[in-house]
Write a structure and sequence with these properties.
The chain is mostly helical and 180 residues long. Strands 4-3-6 form a three-stranded antiparallel β-sheet, with no helix packed on it. Strands 1-2 form a two-stranded antiparallel ribbon. The chain has a two-stranded antiparallel ribbon with strand order 5-7. Strand 3 and strand 4 form a beta hairpin. It comes from Euphydryas editha.
């Protein structure tokens, strides 16, 4: 394979090589002083992403020897998850930490855009027009976390439905497990 020299601007590519296939490129990031060796995807390490990395104090830097700004899917997901995680309030560290441990995290960015849009439409989540997938996922996550949940009632109802071999769809159709 022939290596071509492309002009660089403070370690960032000028874009001339961006038209080439990036299948032979590796991730441009240095993760905790180790250069990532995973294949680069189509996500770019933009200024906005760099700001997120700095704010979340992730140990990621761009390799000064890299001739492009493409990152691997692993680091893309890591950055997206760091962006969507809520920071714990300083006031009540003990109570909020226990609540975070009990509630499972849902990675909304992993869902398809159509799924996110259906959720938005079903629950009438207010968003600005033109939201991208990440912004839509953040809005839905905020809505989802605001939903009130009566855990005792839900668990009781679930156990009842399991014992009676019923499901919610049967009740909507006017049927129950006894009439079948």
């Amino acid at each position: 394979m022939i290596q071509r020299e492309y002009p660089m601007n403070n370690g960032f590519s000028t874009g001339e090589e961006d038209s080439r296939s990036n299948s032979d490129q590796i991730c441009c990031l240095v993760d905790d002083n180790d250069r990532c060796r995973r294949p680069a995807g189509n996500a770019s390490y933009s200024k906005r992403i760099q700001k997120t990395v700095a704010q979340r104090r992730l140990k990621l830097n761009i390799d000064s020897q890299a001739r492009h700004t493409y990152i691997c899917d692993y680091h893309k997901t890591m950055i997206q998850c760091a962006r969507t995680k809520q920071r714990r309030p300083k006031d009540s560290e003990d109570d909020s930490h226990e609540a975070e441990m009990d509630s499972p995290e849902v990675d909304w960015v992993q869902l398809q855009v159509n799924t996110l849009k259906r959720y938005k439409k079903h629950y009438k989540v207010p968003t600005k027009p033109g939201f991208n997938k990440t912004q839509l996922a953040e809005a839905i996550q905020k809505h989802f976390k605001s939903l009130p949940v009566n855990e005792k009632e839900i668990v009781t109802y679930f156990i009842y439905m399991v014992k009676t071999n019923g499901n919610k769809l049967d009740q909507k159709n006017g049927m129950n497990s006894d009439s079948v």
